[in-house]
Amino acid sequence: MKDLRLLIVDDVEDNRLVLNAICRKMDGFAIKEAVDGLDAIAVCEEWHPHIILMDVMMPNLDGLEASKVIKSRFPETVIIVVTAVIDPQMEAHMAAIGAAAYIHKPIDKELVRFKLQSFGAFLRSKDGIHAKLSTKEALNPFCSDVRHLKTIFDITDAEGMMDFGVWILSRCEEHQTFSSSKVDPVIELFYELMRQGLRAEEQVSIIIEESFEEIFITMKFDKPVVLKAKTQELVDDLQSYCIIRQNFACVRLNIGVNQPKAETIPVSIKTPEVCIAVSPSLLPLSEVEDLKEVRVLQSEEQTLLRQSFVKKTSAFEYVADIGGDVLDEIRDLESLDEEWRESLNTLESEPSVENIRQFTDGVLAVYVKAINNLFEFTALAYALSSLGTFMKEQADAVINDPKKLKMLVMLTEHLGSDLTSWREHIFALQDAADIHYLDSSFFSSCMQIEQIVGDKKIDSEDDNDNDMEFF
Amino acid sequence: MAKRVIIVDDSRAVIATAELALDGLISSGVIEFKSYLNPLELLGALQNGSENFDMLISDVNMPEMNGLDLARAIKSDERYKTKPIIVLTTESSEQMKMTGKEIGVTGWMVKPFNDEKLVKSIKMVLGV
């Protein structure tokens, strides 16, 4: 039964196609599309969508203005902003207008479905339709009797993850604190942590404790947690509202009207079944800052590295299918080849943090932006941004060590050549039988550079994975 | 006499990292190292006899030719039938490994590789 109406708003046809393909695999949603903000308003007037996936930068009327009009006329509409631009000012505007969540490009289709299904179930529950999300006997998160007690989620599969998402949305709605700026990052963080845990086949449990004004969400880990870059960003954004240790992550979420004062924040009590969740304000600052990533090969990265594209798409087929604008943007990257080399030469002759940033922000970032527009190459974009992050992290160590600097420059120059060759094979010659021939290998090289330059021994979670298998 | 080790990989970065890993063996004269970016070029050189090797390290996913097809072509040539070929790739599916095994590939190592383990394995295969 398609009881919920979903509107996809984007001026780029390819983007609409991708989102539509992702969304139509979910049950219960009727889907329509709009090509810009004006079109979106027109569709809202006659079709009254429950949820809108809204692009921001569009001709005629942009996503911000369109959302203002739609929320003023149809305040119940849930607007989820889809954007590649990370702009705090814009996000603040969207939150003020009442945008409920964000989806960042490149699109993570599982995350999109997770958010939509959570909102879907949440909207249905408001109408008194309590869809049974889990087939398991679980603690009922909507039961008022347990709200002042610990609520425990044993997450064993995607349904369990959704139960948790719905619970959070529903809980915040009750307290009129339904603001994307607060809830959305928390949901994303736990989604990433839950997914990471499930993939590692760990037992994933989330324990929620409540005070009158805040809820504390704690997740325990069987093994020391390893954060991937995206998760780390979420943690950083949450600042003092999140704390992560080797065996747990804890977020506090204010659901009351008044901000709690630091001295009144309770320390949760250690009980046999609950791990210790210490309020950040009670920890010495140095301890909070001392949270370092252990750089081992993560399961997420394993997935990217080992992803296998069953259906091989040839470069010829692929290029015939993508839009001219995107193709032009990729071809424009040719002018960056020279800049890639020059920027690295400058870095080698004049080592400085500024020159590292010149390369990462002036050259690498442009590449990432262009490749991000190609939905097929998420792994490549991820590899490039992780290289940029690594270079910035290592900036001080590298500029003070001529040997490391030389090594980094040499290897990064080779990566530049690999990208040039990739562009030729995919977009110019179009002779690659499989468009993904470079993705995993490129990512692997970036990790290898971390190993060589960062003195970080790259190791798989399973030590045997690094051994040669003899036949 | 130095053993001739050839690596074929479409990525210059992979070749460079492998060369760095094998630096000890190269500088001590245990092996001589040669690289090819294009498997077709290597195959041509092997077929016309202008190239030879004691060990080949091959990638799998390359734009011009799949590394397993390259290995199959080389193994079908009497001159190279017994020469060891090891695969260095991000591919780790059992099906792919099985294909490698059927072709007669000696070993399979996944990227990103551990320097020490790569050197150890190569020494073992070459008996040096």
UniProtKB/TrEMBL annotation, chain A:
InterPro entries on file: Bact_response_regulator, CheY-like_superfamily, Sig_transdc_resp-reg_receiver
Residues annotated as domain Response regulatory: 5-120
Residue list for modification 4-aspartylphosphate: D55
Cofactors that this protein relies on: Mg(2+)
Keyword field contains RNA-binding: no
GO biological process, one term: phosphorelay signal transduction system
Record-given protein name: Response regulatory domain-containing protein
From TrEMBL, chain B:
Pfam families: Response_reg
Cofactor: Mg(2+)
Keywords, comma-separated and alphabetical: Chemotaxis, Flagellar rotation, Phosphoprotein
InterPro entries with a match to the protein in the record: Bact_response_regulator, CheY-like_superfamily, Sig_transdc_resp-reg_receiver
Biological-process GO terms, alphabetical: archaeal or bacterial-type flagellum-dependent cell motility; chemotaxis; phosphorelay signal transduction system
Protein origin, superkingdom: Bacteria
Residue ranges constituting the Response regulatory domain according to the UniProt record: 4-126
4-aspartylphosphate carried by residues: D59
UniProt keyword annotation of Zinc-finger present: no
Protein name: Response regulatory domain-containing protein
